[in-house]
Amino acid sequence: MNKLKPWIQGLCGLLMAVGQTCTWAQDAYPSRPITLINPWAAGSSTDIMARAVADQFFKQMGQSVVVVSRDGGSGVIGMSVLMQAPADGLTLAFTPMTPVTIQPHHLKDLKLSPDTIQPVCGITENILGLSVRSDSPFKTLTDLIAAGKTKSLTYGSPGPNSAPFLAVDDLARNQKLDLVHVPFKGDAASIQELLAGRLDFATSIAASAAPQVKAGTVRLLAVASERRHPGFPEVPTLREMGIDVTQLSFAGLFAPRGTPPQVLAKLDAACALAVKSEPVKEAAQKSNQILAYQSMQQWDKRVHDEFIKQGAAFRAAGGVRQ
Asked: What domains are there in the chain, each with its CATH number?
């Protein structure tokens, strides 16, 4: 076998050079530890789920999966790192689709898109919410809207052009509100500023505000998704309140474009098993996240459709790329 190995490797190289797949080489995947990029703040809901999925990948594939945070730019920094990584399946990212579907329409020369990053599988649905301190004079969203029409209100978000920011940006335009946006690196920082009394309200993934909501220090006024958060069934959607604003947010796994089909298939299968596992279900429940597995085909379509939708919305609003 040792004598044949150089010949086999040479044959693999020849086959790959002419665009063919060498099954012998792909069977070894993953041959080394996998790096899983979290493009958002450490300790965020994205980080929690990435680590839960990483543990399941390790159990399934026998190689360690190291989660590293590369936050900044509303997910753009981490996803740009992924885009430039070798397409061998050893560098992945777990993120809401925002940096791939929204940011490219807002930022000049940003090469991120569904055609430069490979969607692998969808894992969670992020329901977005608007929150105030429990002692806020705004007892309902109606109170907040009434105030925003008469004076300037400040709010925090996890970053410019993030899905939570866009939900409030749409709300402000829809209701003609005077709002001042204060961007942060992740949900946790904006919620801390809200608790400190330096913001009138915050917009975030509802799961990020859940610990404070349950502790009674923060009140969730409304959500911007198509359905209510199952953990807070009493909190209405904006559409239920007669406000024509919806902002969807799903999170999943991405790989560099050009990753071999056999590797992608193995990752997709690992995703499906991970979402069904008890540890991932438990992590989702404890962090108030909603599991929503989408196969590679479904996830790829979701990301491409959302990219087109967000581009149309950006142009309709008269947006100018920065």
From this structure: 32-125+249-316 (3.40.190.150), 128-241 (3.40.190.10)
